Amino acid sequence: MTRQAIHPDMTEVTLPRVLSALGDPVRLQVVRVLSDGAEHLRADFPRAVADSTLSHHMKTLREAGVIFSRPEGTRCYVSLRSELDDRFPGLLRAVLDADANSAEAGSASAFC
Is the dihedral of CA 98, 89, 13, 54 positive or negative? Predict the structure, then answer.
């Protein structure tokens, strides 16, 4: 029997749910890895959390409509949902840029 991940229809994806999913630092790291446009395996993601916690973060992102999971055998390939940028143009880029700018500002102020 093949596992099948459940992905919401994009008409059901809401801005508050997407922003809530992106509001966690680990999930932002996952999205940053996926922002290269390729499919990735679990080993490509942050190892600062337990596997079960990473699975929870992936489920949150998938249910919010941010990522697409494609099981193949014993592996699961993950990518950003291309339709998300159609629904909310520029949102992911803006969030990732804001996060990067915030991190740079935080590290710069630590030296002052």
Answer: negative
- Distance, in Å, from the CA atom of 13 to the CA atom of 87, rounded to the nearest integer, reads 8
Cα separation, 104 vs 102, whole angstroms: 5
pTM: 0.86
pLDDT in tens, 55-88: 999 999 999 999 999 999 999 999 999 999 999 9
Which CATH number does 14-106 carry?
A: 1.10.10.10
H/E segment holding residue 103 = helix 91-109
Q: Measured between alpha carbons, how far is 18 from 95 in angstroms, rounded to an integer? A: 11
Residue 40: strand, helix, or coil: strand
Do residues 21 and 60 make contact, with C-beta atoms less than 8 angstroms apart? yes
